[in-house]
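A quick word before the example. In earlier lectures we treated sequence and structure as two separate objects. From today on, think of them as two lines of the same record. Here is HAD family hydrolase written that way.
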Amino acid sequence: MVGSLATMINTVTFKPKSRSRNQNQGGLPSKMTVFCDFDGPIIDVGDRYYSTYKLALTETVAYYHEQNIFIPCRLQNQKTFWEMKKARVPDVEIAQLSGLEGEQIQFFRNRVVEIVNQPEQLHQDKMQAGVGWALTYLRVNGIKLVLVTLREQEQATRILQQLDLFHLFAAIYGTQQESAAYQNQPQQKTQLLAQAIAEQLPFGCDCDRTWMVGDTEADLIAAQAAGVKSIALTCGIRNQQVLEQFSPTEIFSDLLSFTLSLVHQTELVAA
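And the structure line, produced from the sequence above:
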């Protein structure tokens, strides 16, 4: 269960420019807030997920071999595996395509959940291209950033500090469950985003000028339930065809593309 897990952070202080009463830095409308997911928009988890798949499959084959049960393993290559993940192919089907059946599939799935957040796997994560520039550009244009992730909160905070991105966020909302991000339950994301928005309202959050940026159905469902604009990114774990099924407000290739579009649109409005 997600509790009250917001970690408030001192934001960067920028020297204000001359502006009208209803405008923020850079001439942009005030009270603009971007709630952003972590895995996908900011962090590329592709290598970690594939490594986890390979290790879990290898361990499953070895476990049953010890019981004199031979599994005709069919290891999927990384390109095929990632295409299946982006197409929202269930882990059960991926296991079957890899040669598993019956109780072997559940053994494999359990190992995936147990392995995916181990330190030796986490170090394979990397920052998506252009993320540092995009987040900084949003902030210097007066747009508030709030992280909403199903990652364990302490883990997400630590990684942001390591990447020197921590100071760009006004608040971080995460979970206390190590496996929540991999399981990616829409109901859990919906509850967490609702909590984040409710707690940010007293600090100037305006739902009419709020965006939720993510790369999965959980992010889009959560945004729509909260009544804010939903932005889907194809750089994460879902492809455009899957994302279109959930009717996002807009679809972009990555966070940088969204950032440039948002700042440009708001500058036109402010002009």
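Notice the following. The chain has two domains: 7-44+127-270, 46-122. We will return to this example when we discuss secondary structure assignment.
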